[in-house]
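Posting for a labmate who doesn't have an account.
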Amino acid sequence: DIFVTDGHAPIAPFIPPNLDMRVMKFDAHGKFIKQWGKPGAGPSEFNNPHALAFDSRGRLYVADRANNRIQIFTQDGKLITEWKQFGRPSGFYITGDALYAIDADSTEAIHPGWKKGVWIGSISQAKATSFVADDQAGEGVVVAPNGNMYGAVNVAPRGITRYSKK
């Protein structure tokens, strides 16, 4: 199956009218199966859904960026939980039990008490255990087999940031 988020919009308290904020599910041939979500800040509601990933148990993680959280669903759209302990996620990468969530937006004005960078933690413990600060943090993150982490920076200066494993 294929999952797609819809609803990227200017990040502000104002959401343009008639803008969908949702997750859509399609089969392997592109046939629409279902959708869930709507604009808002409640359970199964989204404000700027920005990235998707699956964990080893097949649960779907949605970066609900402007709501400063990750929402976790079954593949049929049932909300399992929400996490706010991984910053304001723009993107993430999951490998084994590790979750890497990149936060490109946190500032005192937008998300008080949080900083831009990559939050790293355990899925089974639902806990961030480390943080790599980066004022130019990007919107996507991956980890190479050698342990180096890479962030995709979508604002000036655009490019890729390599975080070397220590």
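Reply:
Got it, the structure tokens are right above this. Residues 43 and 88 are 17 Å apart (CA to CA).
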